[in-house]
Design a protein that fits this description.
Layout: E1 5-13, E2 17-22, E3 25-30, E4 45-52, E5 58-61, E6 73-81, E7 85-89, E8 97-100, E9 117-124, E10 130-134, H1 137-143, E11 155-164, E12 167-172, E13 177-181, E14 194-202, E15 208-211, H2 222-232, E16 238-239, H3 247-254, H4 258-270, E17 274-277, E18 282-285
């Protein structure tokens, strides 16, 4: 079956390749992709990974891919197809593998981008098509390492392996399991995205809680943080609220009283994080704490 390591007999060769028979089908094995110490001869048996390349040509290689049927490996995203999924590089010279859109977030803004990385294994369907399948939380649990207790306020490099409305689940380069709540990120994080984040605590599920917000956020109260995050998540960084807004509208949108809203608004205006347009009664994000402007987000 394609997508597996198989053994077959060399039945022919030319200057560049051997031709290997497996179950009545011939696979081309380029001589430059031989890794065994001695090059084989006609009639010898050889082993390698079998697949079809981009041109539907049956190939064998001894340069084994990063990911296999029973082995997970990190694969870099090379191409995005909205109608199909994302293509990833698993180390084959002339073949990229697809992660189906069925396995990706429903919200395409959370899909990986080119250059992001995903932990995948291979799966071959009944039509002999090879797919890359994402590692689930159980796999990351098995791969994870115990983290030390002195990481609070330290920065970690992490890769997001699940992006949900409540937040992002990620694994660090040291294989520590982490979680970033949606309130601790200026923008939603996408699947496969690699970022640096700060450790702010330990969850009851033995994960490190992280934040991507600048440390300057700690100087702002919760109400002000909520207003800033609401502004940061709008396309134009603007909201139809001001100190003249109806108390019920403020309560419905932010969940706080008008008095609390006005106090938070005053602090943000004084710190030049936002501006207020009294003509159309809107507020606009100028910058986030620790950033020069909203263009840096």
């Amino acid at each position: 079956m394609l997508g597996e390591i198989s053994r077959g007999k060399i039945t022919d060769e030319n200057q560049d390749s051997y031709f290997v028979q497996i179950n009545g089908k011939t696979y081309e094995l380029p001589k430059i992709e031989i890794t065994q110490e001695e090059h084989p001869k006609l009639g010898d048996e050889v082993q390698g990974f079998i697949y079809e390349n981009l041109h539907k040509k049956a190939k064998m290689t001894q340069f084994l891919p990063f990911a296999q049927k029973d082995q997970y490996g990190w694969a870099k995203v090379t191409q995005i197809r909205g109608d199909l999924g994302v293509f990833v590089d698993i180390g084959l010279q002339d073949k990229e593998i697809v992660v189906s859109l069925d396995d990706l977030p429903y919200d395409k803004t959370r899909w990986p981008k080119k250059g992001d990385r995903l932990l995948v294994r291979l799966e071959t369907d009944e039509k002999e098509r090879i797919w890359a399948k994402l590692a689930d939380d159980d796999v990351f649990q098995q791969l994870s390492s115990r983290f030390p207790s002195d990481l609070i306020n330290k920065d970690l490099k992490v890769t997001v392996y699940a992006s949900r409305l409540v937040g992002a689940f990620a694994i660090s380069d040291e294989y520590y399991l982490t979680f970033i709540h949606e309130s601790q990120m200026a923008q939603p994080l996408r699947l496969g995205q690699t970022i640096e984040a700060r450790v702010i605590g330990i969850s009851q599920y033995s994960r490190l809680n992280l934040s991507t917000l600048p440390r300057a956020f700690e100087e702002i109260d919760d109400d002000a943080q909520m207003i800033l995050m609401s502004l940061a998540r709008t396309p134009d960084h603007t909201l139809p609220f001001s100190d003249k807004s109806d108390p019920s509208e403020i309560k419905n949108h932010f969940g706080i009283s008008k008095g609390a809203f006005k106090r938070a608004l005053g602090h943000l205006l004084k710190a030049d994080y936002i501006s207020e347009n009294k003509i159309d009664n809107t507020i606009h994000l100028l910058k986030l704490p620790g950033a020069d402007s909203t263009h840096d987000q």
